[in-house]
Structures are given as C-alpha cells and as structure tokens.
Write a structure and sequence with these properties.
- It contains 8 helices and no strands.
- The chain has helices spanning 11-30, 33-49, 51-54, 60-81, 100-107, 111-122, 127-134, 138-156.
- The longest helix is centred in the middle third of the chain and has 22 residues, at 60-81.
- The protein is globular, with a radius of gyration of 18 Å.
C-alpha cells in the first residue's frame, strides 16, 4: 500500500490480510473484478480516514467488510436499474480469482438469494448481521439462504454418468 500515515499503525496489516478475499466476495455480488476492487479500495479508504475509531472495534476487518458489502449492494442495485455505467457481466468474460463454476452458479441466483449466500457463507456474517446489512428480517435471510443453497446444490451437482444399458 505504500507509506501509512502517522497514527495508522496496524492498517497495512489489516489491508494485506483482508483485501484479496474481500475483493473475491464483493465480486460475487457485483459480478466484476474491477468494480469489486474499486468498492473494496473505497471501503479501506473509509477505514483509514476513521482509523482512530475503526482500529479499536473488535474486528476491524468485519467493519471494512460490512462497508464494502453495503456499497456493493448499492452498486448492483443501480446497475440493475440501469443508472450505473457498469458493463453487463458474463462469468466467462471476467472470471477473475473466483472459481468459474461457483461464480456462474452464484450469478444465476435471484438477487436476494445471491446476496444472502455471499454475505453469510463467503463473508462469514451471521444471519442477524446479514439481515442488518440487507435491511430485511432474519427470517427472510433464512428463507433466502435455504432457497439459495438448494439452487446452488442443483447447479453444482455433478451430472450423472450416462449408462449404456449394459450391466
């Protein structure tokens, strides 16, 4: 990251430890590695600006993650409404660091299921934390997770080997 400003001890370590995985998680929400990198960088800039307070929270990385995920959800919502200049995304064209089969399966989920799955299973937020980030009830998150996991299991299931009838 370069030189850390005075009073920001520990920030570089947090950045190095959290940045790569957070970019991958945000990418699953927004569908673009470049957009994900920008969102995560902005979230870390916000953490650095507030470092005097953020470094004292129990889990500074979780603070950055929540900020990044909220921004990702806003960006994705704007893109879906057509007001954001984010190019249409196809998993094959912007595979980035995420497994392409998983990326395709997650991208195919309905919006609510995709957000819940990414935040809970990949960002490791609790159901209550996911509910807070998304602005929905914990029950809604549980339903979205259940449905999303079922769709992912179906999408990622290995095709059954064809039998030739000989036995």
């Amino acid at each position: 990251m370069g030189r850390t400003p005075a009073g920001a001890e520990g920030f570089d370590e947090l950045f190095r430890a959290e940045y790569p995985a957070l970019v991958r998680r945000v990418q699953l929400v927004v569908g673009s590695a470049a957009v994900a990198e920008e969102i995560v960088q902005d979230a870390f800039c916000g953490a650095l600006e507030r470092w005097g307070r953020v470094r004292h929270v129990e889990r500074p990385g979780a603070w950055v993650q929540v900020v990044a995920m909220r921004r990702a959800i806003k960006v994705e919502g704007r893109r879906r409404r057509g007001s954001e200049l984010v190019p249409a995304w196809s998993p094959a064209s912007d595979a980035g660091p995420v497994d392409i089969d998983l990326q395709r399966a997650i991208a195919a989920l309905p919006e609510g299921q995709r957000r819940a799955v990414v935040l809970h299973h990949l960002a490791d937020l609790s159901v209550d934390d996911v509910a807070e980030v998304l602005g929905v009830s914990a029950g809604t998150v549980k339903t979205q997770l259940h449905r999303g996991r079922a769709r992912l299991a179906e999408a990622l299931r290995e095709p059954e080997e064809a039998t030739d009838g000989a036995g």
